[in-house]
Automatic annotation (TrEMBL):
GO terms for molecular function: ATP binding. Residues 1-10 have a biased composition (Basic and acidic residues). Keywords: ATP-binding, Nucleotide-binding, Transport. NCBIfam families: proV (TIGR01186). It comes from Streptomyces albiaxialis. Residues 47-283 form the ABC transporter domain. It comes from the Bacteria. The keyword Aminoacyl-tRNA synthetase does not apply. This is Glycine betaine/L-proline ABC transporter ATP-binding protein. InterPro entries: AAA+_ATPase, ABC_osmolyte_uptake_ATP-bind, ABC_transporter-like_ATP-bd, ABC_transporter-like_CS, Gly-betaine_transp_ATP-bd, P-loop_NTPase. The lineage of its organism: Bacteria, Bacillati, Actinomycetota, Actinomycetes, Kitasatosporales.
Length: 375
């Protein structure tokens, strides 16, 4: 499993102030005849997918989903095939019409927009990157990247200049005049990413963009997304079925099953406190020390105790894997310091509790022997 990003914090974007970019409330997408009756019928909304299909012939791809996406965050929606994640992201800009519910983009009602307003959203405010690259084979890389700007009405010279800048930004220097057929899969996906960036959208929407790529190329593209987010701070909604990809990219993750969000939280919250057995099974093989921070591993300390002033200082969001290395190197405990004050202590025992998945009674969970042996 690839390593997640290390810049983690327990503070979610919701705590940083400012309104959400996207605000979704009670969103439903039902496929089938007379689908609109289902969200408002309490005798139907509680049925399982199989029961609903048997009784009505309809399929609820998205069921009563609510969440906010905050400015500057990478919001990941993940789940297995058929969980509703791709339908959900397409509903955000009404590429798929929702059956009912509310979608607010920067205070504006997307569901109530007319065709011209929707066109404006899709051209300027929310750009989509698909798994299928969708490149025009007869056009050069630069002209493919400039296509959205052409649709906007930008002049040829200006749009090609801007497209050339985007081509360099995504690491395709010197390839601007090639045709898509002369590029690798990873390079073609970079063209798709550059095309989305060229229109300078407020939000980038990714619908499983790297699923068809080889593992090494996929990792490179993940690194590219991380780099672009770090440099630009652009809001992103990222759809994936790959847990390791979600953990690497996401500031928060919404885990879907049968059209519903079964848990929404930071990668650390989901791995440390799975909401149910389904989530627990999903994250069972995650190397916890690469996701959980010392904030969760530390033990309390008395401010007057000698250990409160000794040992290497660690920030609360330091990953347990990094803390293990520090403790091993120093041979003593470390103190967790926040705002100049020691708030806890981590030592071998505290760190081992995380790695070994010890429960509240100190009993080891499944897979412990293998994990402890690696410490």
């Amino acid at each position: 499993m690839s390593e997640p990003r290390t810049e983690r914090s327990e503070t979610s974007p919701a705590d940083t102030g400012g309104g959400p970019v996207f605000s979704v409330r009670s969103l439903w997408k039902v496929f089938g005849a007379k689908a609109s009756r289902i969200p408002g019928d309490s005798s139907l909304t509680g049925l399982s997918q199989a029961e609903l299909r048997e009784k009505t012939g309809c399929t609820a791809a998205v069921r009563d989903v609510s969440f906010d996406v905050h400015k500057g965050e990478v919001f990941v929606v993940m789940g297995l095939s058929g969980s509703g994640k791709s339908t959900l992201v397409r509903c955000l800009t009404r590429l798929i019409e929702p059956t009912s519910g509310e979608i607010i983009l920067d205070g504006e009602d997307v569901v109530g927009m007319d065709k011209e307003q929707l066109r404006e959203v899709r051209r300027h405010r929310a750009a989509m990157v698909f798994q299928n690259f969708g490149l025009l084979p007869h056009r050069s890389v630069i002209d493919n990247v400039a296509y959205g700007l052409e649709i906007q009405g930008m002049g040829k010279e200006e749009r090609r200049a801007k497209a050339a800048t985007m081509v360099e930004k995504v690491g395709l220097e010197g390839l601007g005049e090639r045709r898509p057929g002369q590029l690798s899969g990873g390079q073609q996906q970079r063209v798709g990413l550059a095309r989305a960036l060229a229109v300078d959208p407020e939000v980038l929407l990714f619908d499983e963009p790297f699923s068809a790529l080889d593992p090494l190329i996929r990792r490179d593209m993940q690194e590219e997304v991380i780099r672009l987010h770090r440099e630009e701070g652009r809001t992103m909604v990222f759809i994936t079925h790959d847990l390791s990809e979600a953990l690497r990219l996401g500031d928060r993750i919404a885990l879907m099953r049968d059209g519903q969000i079964v848990q929404l939280g930071t990668p650390e919250e989901i791995v440390a406190n799975p909401a149910d057995d389904y989530v627990r099974d999903f994250v069972r093989d995650v190397p916890r020390e690469q996701v959980i921070s010392v904030r969760r591993a530390m033990r309390p300390v008395d401010a007057d105790a000698p250990e409160a002033t000794t040992g290497t200082e660690l920030a609360p969001d330091t990953l347990v894997s990094d803390a293990i290395e520090t403790v091993a190197r120093s041979g003593e405990h470390c103190r967790v310091v926040e705002n100049g004050r020691t708030v806890g202590i981590v030592d071998y025992a505290a760190l081992l509790t995380v790695v070994a998945r010890l429960d509240e009674n100190g009993d080891a969970g499944e897979g412990t022997e293998r994990e402890v042996a690696t410490v």
